[in-house]
């Protein structure tokens, strides 16, 4: 994302969007429920059609291994992950990577080009400069302009190339860094979903640090009911309920990761074009897409674009999105036609 890059565990600091499963008529849904933590990312899985031939313990073990494998591909906090090894590479030749990583980077580069660089997975150096990397402890220092300009020279999705066959990455300068925190949780949710499908599961919901993938129906026999969080800084409250089926959902927001200096608020969402945090009134964006990876990337893109340009971009490209922004009277909301179809009336 532009910035969100440190969301999850890792980094994605951005998003978050705490999403809750809504129960219908007070009934607690049945089904198999599994959960765990990988790094700093909490994950939850609900399975409607748990396979008889596979035990819950076996599925739990498989899910934990899948989450760990995702981190080994894209977690920059792990110096031995695949993306970290590429970031450490100082050469200009093609660097061999797995097919999964190459496909993921290809997706992010397509969205980078589509957004004109608003979304950029090479923005990591700026995230770190502003103190929003997951491993940073301080977030209250505004960098000098010279530092920002020098760091911006390392950033730019055009400096990164991907090859799918054979899978490899290449950078035009050795100090280019790829930060995939903006899609890390969505990617992990999709990988978990694919694992479940490989074990014969066809109806499930996966949630990884707020990013969601659903397939089939809920244990109640209807679409999965999910709540989008109100972007308040203290506590948790539901802003809007939606129904999902065979879709991914992700939320990006600025209300959890920011600092205030000199009376000015600085969020973790960085504009690569200026090197500064964006200053829109937009508090959060939720996106529906075919999978959680796309939803995650587009949520970051729209968050970085602001409420007006973000809405225009979403409508132009057929993205189902829900916007919440701050006004003097409280929060205001808007949504695209595609997202409106998923909203639960009265929620």
TrEMBL record:
It comes from the Bacteria. InterPro entries: ApbE (IPR024932), ApbE-like_sf (IPR003374). Its EC number is 2.7.1.180. The keyword Metal-binding applies. Its cofactor is Mg(2+). Keywords: Cell inner membrane, Cell membrane, FAD, Flavoprotein, Lipoprotein, Magnesium, Membrane, Metal-binding, Transferase. It is found in: Cell inner membrane. It catalyses: L-threonyl-[protein] + FAD = FMN-L-threonyl-[protein] + AMP + H(+). The keyword Magnesium applies. It is a lipid-anchor. It holds the Pfam family ApbE. GO terms for molecular function: transferase activity. Flavin transferase that catalyzes the transfer of the FMN moiety of FAD and its covalent binding to the hydroxyl group of a threonine residue in a target flavoprotein. PANTHER family: FAD:PROTEIN FMN TRANSFERASE, THIAMINE BIOSYNTHESIS LIPOPROTEIN APBE. Belongs to the ApbE family. This is FAD:protein FMN transferase. It comes from Candidatus Thiothrix phosphatis.
